[in-house]
Design a protein that fits this description.
239 residues; alpha/beta; Rossmann fold; 2 domains; three-stranded antiparallel beta sheet; 11 strands; globular; binds iron/sulfur cluster
Amino acid sequence: MLWLRKGLNQPMKTLTTKLSSTLPGVSPGRPAPTPLKDAPPETICPTQALREHEGVMDVDYARCIHCRLCHQQNAKNQMAWEEGHQWTQMTSPKLPDAFHHSVHVRIVDAGDCGACLNELHQLASPVYSLHRLGIAFTPTPRDADVLVITGPVTVSMKEAVEEAYHAMPSPKRVMAVGTCALSGGIFASSFSIVGPVERIIPVDIAVPGCPPPPLALLDAFQRLMGAHSEEQLAERVRT
Ligand code: SF4
Ligand code: SF4
């Protein structure tokens, strides 16, 4: 019973979305566009995420797997590294106001390695507690407002992705989570991949990362629901 008493005496406090993502373990960070000083370091990147553009080394976040090779192994052109977790890219409007306090989410694993799914499932833990924001996971796409796809979309999962999308009521949004879902990631050249997701169904919101940390995912859901400034996010979180 010692561990139980210890746990009760040291309760875990639910995080707020204002939590600093510079704390260890909260966000892995990612490379930032960096002025080019010497020879271009594209060859360092295993996923060809680096491109030179007008004297700046730019990063294609849909391809970056956060391996840090460009940050550590090229002293002359070492890429800057930014902390943070607000990585969401929205290409469609947020959901209507009626969804401001209630959104149901169906997750489809379309060939995920397990890490993106794991980060999503962390959101339901007491630490992140997405339920307090009115977000709930649902087992059926017929009840879902948001379809979350992880993984590069394998041949065998293509039909499941299409069926889930067509079974959802409107209005609906599709969230592609992780580098695999956005570009195929490290699996892009595999014979068993038909993705990325945008080749199969329209994507409304992209969350890059390999995997994206839970706070990046929480940020994405909040944007879909219409809260997109730190103040708005903080207002909605009961601490
Ligand atoms: S962190 Fe790795 S994958 Fe990302 S741009 Fe740098 S080298 Fe490429
Ligand atoms: S993006 Fe990275 S963490 Fe997510 S499924 Fe692909 S390999 Fe795994």
